[in-house]
Amino acid sequence: MNRRARAAAKPLLDESRFQRAVTQLPPRFTPEELRDVMTSQNDPLVCLELFNWASKQHRFRHDVSTCHVAIQRLGEAKMYEEMDHIVNQVLAVPSIGSEALFNSMIYYFTEARKLTRAVMIYKHMLNSRKLDCRPSIKTYNTLFAALLSRRNNSYINHMYMDTIRSLFKQMVDNGIEPDIFSLNTMIKGYVLSLHVNDALRVFHQMGVVYQCQPNSFSYDYLIHGLCAQGRTKNAKEIYDKMKCKAFIPSSKSYNSLVNSLALGGEVDEAVKFLWEMNENRRTIDHITFQTVIDEVCRQKSVKDAIGLLKELQDKDIVDGLTHSKLLCELEDDVHLNVRNRYSKRDVEKFWMLQLRKENHIDMMALRKQFQLTRAEPNECLT
Questions:
Q1: Interval 59-71: pLDDT, tens
Q2: What's the total number of domains in the chain?
Q3: From 380's CA, which of 13, 43, 57, 295 has a CA 20 to 30 Å away?
């Protein structure tokens, strides 16, 4: 978007509303009176214009409250450029500042993905001579959340994890006790950056070094991270500890565990956890269904795989569409595995026999489906 388009897209100030707001102020208004009028305004542009107008009034000086309201209103409206101008004015006056004000600045800068500005505010707080302006646990948690949000690349997470680790060390060195959010952020960050052993170290320090016990999120992050590395035995140990605490794993943790067990050759355990997921009302994704059925077919037999699929449908765990998709995928896998040993006619006869025995499907409809599958394998997935 060019400069002219950006200028045209900017909202215009409602002069009448601004004039009405000005008339609500007494001749020699105080910062508290200005704050109340600014708070009552729904239009962020009116609020900004009141702030700028008051700055030009004789013998008036803004305080923390008026600056805080202006920054909040502009941040909520995503008017980050205008908010930045007020932030610069605040930073230029050493007497204006509070922990809550600086935390709001950091929060809205992280929302705008201006992490450099957020870190600059943090350093300003760190160097402040006023004790009530120093960083608090809320400051660090806001920065932790921003550094870990919307990042799925393990390399990027690895790079940001160095910054998070440094912030965490500064927090502890400054005498701030980590809370459950801070510790879970460290665990999640280490898992996302593929440093699962470091995540386990933080987990085992909870309740011993830090006066904070793990919650369900702590266990979920670890189970997912361990399964992603194929450490199924360790993941099951964490699951057992989680169960002793009466926590129920999330859908993501359950799916990771079931997939890892199935791929690791423990299909019976995988199926057991599959039923447990359904009992605990956790969502089973399509990849988990496909992995378990494929591994049952590979490690046991096609008959067992079809039997499991039928049982899933009978218990209403999979709907008709999902059942058809999984059946087509299983049939494709069987064709792929036996095409060098048997003819297509033999494979079709086998499937007809199995499905007729299990589901009593209409033979003409079934034959038509398999003819379509052989001609266009992807058609049966639509």
A1: 899 999 999 999 9
A2: 3
A3: 295
